[in-house]
Each structure stands twice: as structure tokens, then as C-alpha cells.
Amino acid sequence: MGFVVAVICGLLFVPMYQSKMTKGQLGVGKTFWFFGVFMISLLIFLSKAYVEYQGAVDSGKYLGAVKTVFIFIGFYCFFVFLGIWRSAKELRLRKKITMRCFSIFVLGITFLSLFFSLAYSFIIIFTIYLTFKFRKSNGTRNCT
Question: Residue 51 half-sphere exposure, CB side, CA atoms within 13 Å?
């Protein structure tokens, strides 16, 4: 299951990277409170329920379920980090520093979860590489 989630995250990289949230166009309030606090809390709640279900079905699947959940949470937190960081540039200095500190915390969640599921992280990177290679060979526009 983790392999499938890693491939899906790799394929979703370009659309997520091009989203208004990631570009910082939605504003700090919406990006931080809705996409950051609310959505990450919802993801953690749903992930906890999924891990508990997998652990109840078969105790051997518990660690695999945790790794699978960490893949998606880390992937999503990376884009929330980019959105908060980029939208904070419109704020005054004190608020900008505060928001960027919070975004670094979100980046820490990303690194922790991707480190915990290290093998799947390589699958995500490889899928992103293949996506860019495919887009370049077809002559489509790059994501940057």
C-alpha cells in the first residue's frame, strides 16, 4: 500500500506545486489556519483511525500503516510549508518572522515523516523525476 501512495504522491507533485496555496496567493490566514492547522489536524485524525484499524485487523500491518500515513502527511506538509512561507512575504517584519517560524515547524514534520518512511521517499523522488522527464520529452511546459 505504501508503494502505491508514494507513486500517487509523486504524480501529484506538479499539480500541487502549481496550486494557488503553494504559490502563496491565498494569503497567510487561509493558508495557515485552513490548509495548515485545520487540514493537517484532520489528516492526523484520519491517519490515526486508519492505523488503529490496520493494527486491529493484523498487528503485523501496524508499522506499514504508520509508514504509509507518514508518506502522505509529509508530502502535504511540504506544500503547506511552501504556501505559508511564500504568503508571509506580504506581512510586516514581526508577523513575517512568526509565520515563517511556524512554517519551519511544518517543514520539520515533513522531514520527520519522510525520514521515517525513507524507502518510500525515494519512490516519490523517482516518480517526480520520471514525470519531469516525460513532460520534457513531450514538449510540455515545466512546472516552475
Answer: 15
Place of cell 502549481: 18
d(CA 58, CA 118): 23
- Residue 82 is predicted with a pLDDT of 93
Query: What nine digits make up the cell of 128?
Result: 517526480
HEC profile of 69-138: HHHHHHHHHHHHHHHHHHHHHHCCHHHHHHHHHHHHHHHHHHHHHHHHCHHHHHHHHHHHHHHHHHHHHC
Classified as helix, coil or strand, 24 is coil
Coil, strand or helix: which one is 45?
helix
Q: Which residues contact 38 (CB under 8 A, 6 or more apart)?
A: none
Q: Which amino acid is at 100?
A: R
Phi, psi dihedrals of residue 75, rounded to the nearest 5°:
-60, -45
Instruction: Give the tens place of pLDDT for each residue, 102-127.
Output: 899 999 988 888 788 777 778 888 88
- Indicate the pLDDT class of residue 142, thresholds 50, 70 and 90: low
